[in-house]
Amino acid sequence: MSTWISSTPFAATFSALAGATISKLTDPAPISERMRFLRWAVLLMILAGAFWLRGHDPLYNTAFMDETFHVRYGRMFLANHFEYPFDMPLHWVFSWYLWGIFAVIAERIAGIAGVREMSAFAGTVAVLAVYGISRRLYSAETGLAAAAIFALLSPAVFSSRIATYDSGAVVFLALGLWVYVRAWQEMKNHLWLWAAVLFFAAFLCKYIMALYFPFLVLAALRKGRRPLLAFSLPLAIFCAGYAWYYRGDLIFLASFYSQFNKRNVMSGSQLWDIYVIQRLDLWVLGLLSLAAWPWTVPPGREAEIRRERWIFILMWTGAAAMLVFQGMSRLADMRFFKHATYSLLFLTPVAAQGILRLARLAGKTLYPFAGAVAVVLVAVSLGWAGNSWNTGAHIFWPNVEPIRAYFEGRLTQQDRLLLDDQGVRYYLEPVLPAENIIEAYYFRYHEMEGPPAYAAAVADGYFDYVALDGSGNEEEVLKMREAIRPVLPGRYALRMTMPEPALQRRIEIYERVNPPAITAASNVAAGAPGLSPRVEILFPATGAAVRTSGIETKLQGRVEGAPAGAYLLAELFTNRWYSQGGRIIPGAAGAFTQPLYLGGQGAQQCNHVVRVRMYDPGGKWLATATQFGIIRANADGSSPSCP
């Protein structure tokens, strides 16, 4: 852990945090220029560290199913064209299209990596908002402490690493709270109105944000008529107008949600693990926040103490609201970390104030050191306990790159696919029409629906390919798999199988052989007369156990129909693609060789994927060859024990 701290922006951040705290007590001027500079320097380093945690290595895994949903919905909304089976997205998703609009813009710029970087930026802005909220409620030092803690909290980090609508809801809620607190203090109409707009934007990203609105409106009533007209009324109009305009979608969604929750029940031990063991950060900060409650009332400070108590009550109400909602509606939420972020957004400023108040017990002389050390200790300990810098520990969806690689260059627009993972659809939609990709949630075949329909379609050879990655545990997915397995051998042959890299579940791809599926030929504008460009890998072959020198062996293959100036690029996949050198120029007879490094460890030792792509001189893709399940033999030549 010490190595990680010293190698990230947080090392300098925490040192500067101590310096900023010390300067406050030693500088003779109330707020010197040096003090302002230190505060900004500390804040910028915290924000830099927060962005690094959230935004580094955006291609750590293939797209999560929910990430692809929002890109797809945003694309359809901007085009004003909704295609079956996604023609009624508001029936199934607890949000409007706002996050989807942002997501599709980012995706057009840089693909899924762009969407994740946008989400990381949103998460970093939320850290800035936590600073602003805490500074307004307490002090600049409390703001820095709260920002440092929130920057490292695992739920906050991974709500931004996974680019779903929670990223948008968190940042708009945080910004809304910041502006709300400022409006409360300055009583300006435009600030109240902006707070209403930001809260409504959070609602458009995720409907559950409406949970906080009654408390915010009731609290604003204490400030008189101005917030009633500039905040409460506009927010009510926004929400009522939305509810009326989309009332049909909301009614259907509520019905679906109630049926879903009836199946979403877990044992007491599972609930204890989800809500207590996995969320110790929430309970530790809750305990520390108790120190922010002013237990005594010194003479002459009654108004100040009353204000601090109201802040404590309101922030604790915000933190508790999501927990109460969870307890009433989604007890078995395996992804509670996302909703925990909302509670932590309210709890962190109060906990930071509590930590610094405890540090003051060390005395005026030791307080600067004690405060900085306490904040560092809490922030790093909670980050370490939550594996905030270990992305792999939080991946709960499959890496579908092997499936994507298998189908590259194989599909025609007439092919039909059956999938058990909706995340694969995103990568195949550029090739196949949406209606040709069928998943486990709804399918009608002749007069049948559900599992009987899937079984009959597979028995009839309706699909050209069936791709399973074993990732979905929903009832519909399990029933679909159970229904088709007995009839798959009748018309389909298993063409590729290997453990999926992220979760080690078994990938299986079946091709129809009775009658045979139609495979796409490589398309190219120019090539050898009568020949389409083709790449063939001669060695290593799929499933081969390869003896290596260290980890090195020799890739061998040949090409046909390559145009003049064509070149090849070789890649190796274990948990991601690794380049195997630069451009390969085929020989006169089309033969090529290239050093190949089979570096996979553990289960990956048995499951290397080798891919060679051909490009024309302008960099246009022409053809692909891929071999799967390549094993690196042990040093003595024996095959390792493969899962």
Short description:
This protein has 643 residues and is α+β, with helices and mostly antiparallel strands. It has 22 helices and 15 strands.
What can you tell me about this protein's structure?
The chain is of the alpha+beta class and 643 residues long. It has three domains: 2-394, no CATH class; 401-512; 534-632, Immunoglobulin-like (Sandwich). The protein has helices spanning 2-6, 10-26, 33-55, 65-79, 98-137, 140-152, 154-161, 165-186, 189-205, 213-220, 225-245, 247-262, 268-277, 280-289, 302-329, 336-359, 367-385, 401-407, 423-428, 451-459, 475-484, 488-491; strands spanning 417-419, 437-438, 444-445, 448-449, 465-468, 492-499, 506-512, 534-539, 545-546, 552-560, 567-573, 577-579, 591-597, 608-615, 621-632. It has a five-stranded mixed sheet with strand order 2-1-5-7-6. A five-stranded mixed sheet has the order 9-15-14-11-12, covered by helices on one side. The protein has a three-stranded antiparallel sheet with strand order 8-10-13, with no helix packed on it.
